[in-house]
Design goal:
This protein has one helix at residues 27-36. The protein is mainly alpha-helical.
Amino acid sequence: MARTGYSTPVSGDTMARGKANELPISPKHAMEIARFI
């Protein structure tokens, strides 16, 4: 399994990360969903 590097530091109290491959969703919609969550 490949390791993913992140370009920004992550604060455990205020951020969450998620990953999904090959989903039929645009980057704009993905960001809107992430903001909503």
